[in-house]
Amino acid sequence: MASSLSATTPSLTFASQTLYTRLSIPLSLSLPLSSSHFLSDPKTLSSLSRHHRGLLSHCHSHSHRHRRAFAARAESENGAEPARPYDFDLFTIGAGSGGVRASRFASNFGASVAVCELPFSTISSDTTGGFGGTCVLRGCVPKKLLVYASKYSHEFEESHGFGWKYDAEPKHDWSTLMSNKNAELQRLTGIYKNILTNAGVMLIEGRGKIVDPHTVDVDGKLYSARHILVSVGGRPFIPEIPGSEYAIDSDAALDLPSKPKKIAIVGGGYIAVEFAGIFNGLITEVHVFIRQKKVLRGFDEEIRDFVAEQMSIRGIEFHTEESPQAIIKSADGSLSLKTNKGTVEGFSHVMFATGRRPNTKNLGLETVGVKMTKNGAIEVDEYSRTSVPSIWAVGDVTDRLNLTPVALMEGGALAKTLFQNEPTKPDYRAVPSAVFSQPPIGQVGLSEEQAIQEYGDVDIFTANFRPLKATLSGLPDRVFMKLVVCAKTNKVLGLHMCGDDAAEIVQGFAVAVKAGLTKADYDATVGIHPTAAEEFVTMRTPTRKIRKTSEEKIDSEAKAPAGV
Amino acid sequence: MARKMLIDGELSQPNAEEGHYDFDLFVIGAGSGGVRASRFSANYGAKVGICELPFHPISSEVIGGIGGTCVIRGCVPKKILVYGASFRGELEDARNYGWELNEKIDFNWKKLLHKKTEEIVRLNGIYKRLLTNAGVKSYEGEGKIVGPNEVEVTQLDGTKLSYTAKHILIATGSRAQRPDIPGQELAITSDEALSLEELPKRVVILGGGYIAVEFASIWNGMGVAVDLCFRKELPLRGFDDEMRAVVARNLEGRGVNLHPRTSLSEIIKTGDGIKVITDHGEELIADVVMFATGRAPNTKRLNLEAVGVELDQTGAVKVDEYSRTNIPSIWAVGDVTNRMNLTPVALMEGTCFAKTVFGGQPSKPDHKDVPCAVFSIPSLSVVGLSEEQAIEQANGDILVFTSTFNPMKNTISGRQEKTIMKLVVDAETDKVLGASMCGPDSPEIMQGIAVAVKCGATKAQFDSTVGIHPSAAEEFVTMRSVSRRIAGASKPKKTNL
Question: Looking at the whole model, is its pTM more than 0.80?
């Protein structure tokens, strides 16, 4: 790779920060590659877990000439400004999923890039963060690791039905889990730093603040940049109620010094149900308080019902239509949660999973005139550009679709737009997602309710069955699956599942949904036997046909075992 | 509903003009293909009879059971044992996640065996009801073909029933074969392996196919010492070579002793167990020796020669694209035709048969891009072409995208086992020709990928799909860099793995 790069790529090192002045370099310039910063170290690559490798794939640096042409166009758009050299082509504030992706790809496309990030801590604040961002340090990764840990208690139960027996019931040691989890997070934040360094991105530890449309202040030091990217993400939000200082958020919940004995989780979103599953699996008594009738607003209604039922069966207690009013600490140190319906006592912990807010405070955004929504999210156009032409934003700080792979998509698209002369809009259609509740949920496309709203006439295919594993284990686990099909075009508009492996199962179907495949295409696919996933290609009879005029219900065929 | 016999255009009105037949359809064999064809034909309005041998977990010429191989001696019991065996690895992995387990964990084979038998008995009952509810008349006994439109069922007590039928469907499946080795009678096949009274301590498996590999994983997970002998360099001939290598490495990593390029010369009973002598002269001692050396179609006792139904040299019934034999009124589906021996394929063939003959829609089963899985631990699943097949069939260049990674769960469990994924893409059309994966949950992951591959999805369409994070499956939509490009002209020499 090095040799091919050196033939076509101008060199770019930290020493040459001023190299990219406004078209001051002739297009034909070709300098020898004087730094190895560009090249990913294969040893680092192979040491990564799968999760991170996705962030690592190389972009080929073959389009530098295009980049320059685009840059020239961008110049003319902002022609009023005087030409002056910048320290960087791109300065990124925040090295989470979106920021790292945009920075790396920009650098691979030939831009000079710097990124600043707060010092590492498992708990985020105005002064702490860490390379890797929410996903790696306080979100997807530690959450999934705790999900893995907590799932075992269910597996131990299952194993009895398969002939396994333990002299003593397995006990869980919280500190082992925490120290192994934290060792992994330390490893990952280090890997993220390496990824950036190897991509030739300059790393700056500190708090970035925008001073003017082309200048960022990091702890008193000023850096100029042609483009500034804000990718500072979001943070958990705890509403102000009496005693809210006793509450913990998801950051803290992922790194508790000891295991809760009894926890109240306030909130009905995905974070709430995921933590409910985690603590329940680790043998904590779990109470979930939700303002609405059901968990997971925005998800398919049947999925919402199904997951709550399965979670209840596993021992989680739901308190519906209860809003928290106060947290009271008793003399013995235990906490009580007072709601509009009464008070529940004896909690060791009260966790709020009541939403996340963009980290836009104290960033200097108001000063330079970057527009924000009333939630504090940065307003951007379809290319992730803010109201200030040289300032861009991706990821949770824009509060579009707050998912790591979406931030990656936005970051990748931005790098292409800015530095590869390929204006690229992120595409939000049919973005799949998962809730790592127990059992988990996977979904892509429209819910039944959304589909009816948008298309009117839809056919609904559902399956609700006891998986093979449960017939042996004797546990009351079930699986629910749904296909939402457009009656007119036969296109599969949405696909939903709650049950073991749902997140893994839905990914492949997401390709099919995104590609606009029809129900007939699903039917033409042969099943893989015996799996749960095969159910999605063997749904022959609609459970109901919904027509604008009337709803025609059809009794679903009893699920034949083995689909025969 | 008009019931056209669409192949030859002849009209079929079973209940009226064709009333001189006892049945519109008589099916021999109530496994996956036979049950599906019977039920669907009955749903189309046909009068259907079906015969099946009496139930027993271990099959023979005179024993079988409604549900067939899949339910009684295949997919279902096998998967149950795989679940049971998988717990060993799970328990090992749990420790680094903070779970304190006793050193001594007890596995009770008899309990699992009992529950497995209960489950297949339950399923056998469900299948019987499925047939009854569909209006299909079931007979217990051995079916034989007497004439192009006549079958004879020999019942348990020896009495014989004779029926005429407008169409006869052969769906008798297949049975495990034994190689001709001195002492072969000391060995068992997969039928018995699913129902052993006692869990052996030492097992020798002969064979490199999916059954051999699955049982190696099952016994290994149950704490049995396993020696796996196979003729080739790698197990799972026909699968992608890279995947085969990973499966072999994983089996070894979990403690299975692999003996590549090895056949068995002799099996001898000794005081200490069964002595197995390999063709290299090596001696292995086992409590159980299992042959997984292929399966043969059940065609011997059907009296096919009487009516002249043609068989191929393996003994499989020869059929056309609509599953029709050379005798126009006789058809065959499933393993007995030895096309692609998978339950869902038999289901597809059975469905197409019913549609063709009684549904007024001539339908050919489509054997292209059929996904399948090997339930080794961890599992392997594939759809479409392997890298080698793609190169073999390519007109232009082939792009291969691979990803080998440490699954997130292993970062804490410490398990040293990589997952591997591969996409094989036609460079010119960008179509994904094949996908394969070896790693946890691969069969579940592959099903959705199979829809995309079947429908000719392009690599660009995979790339435009957003990942589900954090999952293993998201790797299939985030493979950006080509691992290698193989020019259509520069085909590598065939290996002999």
Answer: yes
